[in-house]
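Example record used in the benchmark description.
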Amino acid sequence: MIIVINGPLIVKAEVAIALQQLIAQAALVDADMLRLLDPDAYANVSSLLVEMYAQGARHTILYIYETAAGFGGLLAELAKVDRPVHAFYLAADPDLEEQRIRARNYTDTEEEVSRVRELIAMQQADGALDGALGEVLASSGRSIEDMAGTIMGLLWSR
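Model output (structure tokens):
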């Protein structure tokens, strides 16, 4: 199976890592980094996953920030891989995200707060809270482990 964790949260990587610890033989892919290194990375992501499966991975967890247009392209590419795709959108409360950012002592905290608020607004304008970017999971007041556990419960109930 392929699991996509989407959203502006600064904790989406941590949720993906927690999921990886719960799912045997799961490979983790930082799709944000792939795209940063290669703007056309989505065109190659299916080949990357096929190779990972050939090397022994049984499942893949991708975490990414994506808007509707890019998300559709990613899902189309993932559909080329013979695995079911499950996408989740970690909905963020802007004020809670600001608290998380401030707790991490970024070098430019104000810029990071502004950026996350902008990302949240962009995704919400794309219908994120209506499920356009994955099944919506509220993250406010929840631990990493709780979010990962909820995703596991949803995956295994299908």
